[in-house]
């Protein structure tokens, strides 16, 4: 039985508490969207699980969205269809209902990843596409210098690529997704060359890992990063990132074809 918050969130984060500004800071980036759309192939019907506010739903496909959180469903724009209230682990659809399925920045929220992946594969005739982060690479990001508790939390929450492969029945293909310097989707690595933007508390709140750390961690992060930006210490260590047009970090696309 999947445990859910009063908001309906089914993972370890309560989006009724932290999701209010999500749609303003986690806007889909068209270049990342292009990689997702390409992976979906020629699918006409697409299931989007953990759909949130509708980021990355392809406008040229017939999308059925699933989202357990009421706060996130309420942020879906009017031009998108309403989302079905359900969880990944208990999808209310018959076998082979969809040409393809997708989930973006969601698998780390599922209470039972294996069950959720099994359900995705069950209801999908064609490709299953997962946009996620490789936990083996998360802590290499410069954020670890300032808030190691946050990146350690992310590394712990994201399922390994081997777990995703096994849950989808094997044979998955994983490839890194390059992050553009002006990325509009505000996950942590999107700020690789724009560290000042992570001083915005709403930007941090839109990355759920911050909800798992104590106030002292957030206060130390702001104090230390502000000091290093003012003194030039951040730029001496990481300033080369400001001019890098793309960044290869932990962002990865996992593709499963039916076997």
Automatic annotation (TrEMBL):
Location of region: Disordered: 1-22
GO molecular function: methyltransferase activity
Signal peptide feature range: none
UniProt keyword list: Methyltransferase, Transferase
All residue ranges annotated as the Methyltransferase type domain in the record: 47-125
InterPro entries: Methyltransf_11, SAM-dependent_MTases_sf
GO biological process terms on file: methylation
Keyword Cell membrane: no
The protein's name in its UniProt record: SAM-dependent methyltransferase
Organism per entry: Brachybacterium sacelli
């Amino acid at each position: 039985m999947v445990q859910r918050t009063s908001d309906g969130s089914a993972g370890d984060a309560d989006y009724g508490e932290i999701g209010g500004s999500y749609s303003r800071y986690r806007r889909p980036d068209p270049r990342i969207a292009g990689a997702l759309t390409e992976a979906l192939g020629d699918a006409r019907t697409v299931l989007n699980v953990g759909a949130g506010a509708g980021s990355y739903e392809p406008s040229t496909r017939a999308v059925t969205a699933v989202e357990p959180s009421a706060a996130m469903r309420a942020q879906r724009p009017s031009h998108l269809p309403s989302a079905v209230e359900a969880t990944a682990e208990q999808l209310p659809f018959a076998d082979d209902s969809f040409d393809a399925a997708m989930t973006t920045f969601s698998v780390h929220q599922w209470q039972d990843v294996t069950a959720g992946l099994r359900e995705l594969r069950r209801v999908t005739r064609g490709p299953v596409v997962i946009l996620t982060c490789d936990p083996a690479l998360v802590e290499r990001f410069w954020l670890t210098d300032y808030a190691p508790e946050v990146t350690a939390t992310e590394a712990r929450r994201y399922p390994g690529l081997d777990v995703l492969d096994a849950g989808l029945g094997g044979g998955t293909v994983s490839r890194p997704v390059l992050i553009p310097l002006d990325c509009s989707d505000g996950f942590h690595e999107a700020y690789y060359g724009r560290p000042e933007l992570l001083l915005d508390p709403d930007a941090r709140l839109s990355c759920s890992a911050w909800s798992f750390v104590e106030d002292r961690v957030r206060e130390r992060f702001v104090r230390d990063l502000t000091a290093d930006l003012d003194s030039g210490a951040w730029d001496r260590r990481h300033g080369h990132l400001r001019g890098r047009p793309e960044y290869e970090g932990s962002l990865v696309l996992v593709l499963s074809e039916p076997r």
